[in-house]
Amino acid sequence: MNATPDDGHAGSSDAEEARRAIDTYLRQHSAGEAGRPEAAEDLRQWQETGTTDDRVAECVAREAWDAVQDVTPPPPDSSGGQPERRAGQVEQTEQHDRACRIARGLRELGHHLDETLLPGPGMAAG
């Protein structure tokens, strides 16, 4: 899929967020000894053409939603940790908003995502 719309415009802030997430994902997964050869090829394609496929887009969206789960505070308990829960909820909200922007941006860039990776009232992710 194209990273830049055909009309030459840079796209929305959601598309820019998606582009940054794609770039970060590909760089992280192709770097060092733990890097995967297919990720290195995906990064090369991304750098040369500004395009990537739906498989990479799905991985990027899934990673964004996983980040939401990583910061989701534990359920309330009797220890009275209100400030910690509030701080965790703020970070969760920020990560959730970012995941929504990434998913919308990936769609704007023309990627097809599984409905569980899309923001919405019945979404399974986040």
Could you explain how this protein is built, in words?
- With 126 residues, the protein is mostly helical.
- It has one domain.
- Helix content is 60%, strand content 0%.
- The protein contains four helices and no strands.
- Helix 1 (13-30) packs across helix 4 (82-108) and helix 3 (54-71) runs antiparallel to helix 4 (82-108).
- The longest helix is centred in the last third of the chain and has 27 residues, at 82-108.
- The chain is globular and about 50 Å long.
Shape: globular
Q: Compute the gyration radius: what is it?
A: 17 Å
What's the rounded overall pLDDT mean? 81
Low-confidence stretches: 1-9, 122-126
What is the straight-line distance between the termini?
25 Å
Estimate nothing, just give the exact number of structural domains: 1
Q: What would you call the structural class? A: mainly alpha
Number of DSSP E strands: 0
Helix content: 55-70%
The largest sheet, given as strand count, sense and whether it forms a barrel, is: none
How do the SSEs run, as a string of H and E? HHHH
- The proportion of strand residues reads under 5%
In DSSP terms (H or I, runs of 4 or more residues), the helix count works out at 4
